[in-house]
Amino acid sequence: MINGCVYAKRPNGRVDYETIVGRVAHEFSVPEFACPEQMDEPLDLGDVHFLAGKLQAGDAAPEFEVPKLSGSGTIRLDDYRGKFLLLNFYNAYILTKKRGQLEGIQQVQSRFRSRSDLAIVGIYLESTGVGYLTEKLLQERALSVPHGMAGQYDSKIVIDYSVENLPYSVLIGPAGEVLAKGLKGQDLVQAVREVLSR
Question: Minimal CA–CA distance to 79: which of 96, 58, 65?
């Protein structure tokens, strides 16, 4: 799999890591080689699609499928078609050291839990896997929503959703359009309140 960002180039020819001009995520298979010499031959990766710029409000939300944090099965974007969906990306550091930054998502969960047209899904980013501590912390932080496992920080869902500065939230409309992204605290609560009152 190829996952990554495409960065701008500075006038001096160096890469400008602060300016993302696009994203790419592409799966491909590497065939078995009959002999070592074949490893030097070019490999056809097929069509690699380039997504221009960062994900913006108004864009179609990228499809995703991630394993559930605990138990079996997966969580997919299609599971929530017809509802407002709030994705919240976080990691163990946020749960342990920056728990105050979760107040926005906790307030949304508390204030709008009776709304059947709103779903909240946590997406856990970590390369070391999930243990008892993570599940315990989620319970202590009152984040009783479905949680998926994104894995590495260069995973497809992280690239597709232009995730940065955890915790990171993306609000998606019933038709699958991105309504807002990157909101925290009261800004997040207000954005959810506004879309639900339309």
Answer: 65
